[in-house]
Design a protein that fits this description.
There is one protein chain. With 179 residues, the protein is of the alpha+beta class. The protein has a single domain, classed as 3-Layer(aba) Sandwich (Aminopeptidase). It contains 5 helices and 7 strands. The chain has a 7-stranded mixed β-sheet with strand order 1-2-3-4-5-7-6. The longest helix has 16 residues. It is globular and about 40 Å long.
C-alpha cells in the first residue's frame, strides 16, 4: 500500500486526533490495560498545535486519508497531553548545540502498523531536526512504541511513568539517540 509523508497543517488536526485515538485503542492495548487505554485516549490523544505551527509535525497519507502522524520539536516539552507538561518554560526554544531535539507524538493506525510508516516519519523528523542543527534526540516512549525507537538506534536512558489527570499511571521510557 502506498503512502506519502508531508508536513501537517491545522486542517489535519481532526484527522491527527482520530489517528491518535485509534492507535491508543488498538496498539496501546499491547502494553496497557483497559483503564490505562481509556485514560490515555482521554488525556493524551490531543494534537499539539505548537508542533504544527512550528512546521515540525508530519502526517502519512494513504488514499487521501491520514493514517499516521509524528514529528520533532525544538521546544522543551517532552510529550503530549498531561498538565505537568504545560508548565512554565515548556515552550522555550532548545539550543541545538547543547540540548537534544524532542521526538514527539508518534501514532499509527492499527491497520497500518508494522509497514514502515512509523520508521519513515521518524526518519523525516530526525532529518529535519539535523538540518536545524540538532545532533541529539530525546523522547518519552509509550511502551508500544519502544521497539520502533530501539530499532532506530534509541536507547533507554531511564524507565519512568507519567500520571494522567485522573490518577492513572502509564509506564514509559525516556529514550535518547546521538547522531
Amino acid at each position: 500500500m502506498t503512502y506519502s509523508i508531508r508536513l501537517a497543517t491545522a486542517d489535519d488536526i481532526p484527522s491527527i486526533e482520530r489517528v491518535m485515538r485509534e492507535s491508543m485503542e488498538t496498539i496501546g492495548r499491547f502494553a496497557y490495560d483497559d483503564r490505562q487505554v481509556a485514560s490515555s485516549v482521554r488525556y493524551i490523544t490531543t494534537a499539539d498545535h505548537q508542533l504544527i505551527d512550528d512546521e515540525t509535525y508530519f502526517v502519512a497519507v494513504a488514499d487521501e486519508r491520514v493514517v499516521a502522524c509524528g514529528g520533532w520539536s525544538r521546544r522543551a516539552k517532552l510529550y503530549t497531553g498531561t498538565s505537568e507538561q504545560e508548565g512554565e518554560g515548556k515552550s522555550r526554544a532548545l539550543d541545538p548545540k547543547t540540548e537534544p531535539a524532542r521526538i514527539r507524538a508518534m501514532f499509527v493506525e492499527g491497520a497500518w502498523g508494522r509497514r514502515g510508516i512509523g520508521q519513515a516519519i521518524l526518519a523525516a523528523s530526525e532529518a529535519a531536526a539535523i538540518a536545524y542543527g540538532f545532533r541529539r534526540f530525546e523522547l518519552m516512549a509509550l511502551l508500544p512504541g519502544e521497539p520502533l525507537y530501539a530499532k532506530a538506534g534509541y536507547r533507554v536512558r531511564e524507565r519512568s511513568h507519567i500520571e494522567l489527570p485522573d490518577g492513572v499511571k502509564l509506564e514509559t521510557a525516556v529514550m535518547v539517540k546521538e547522531v
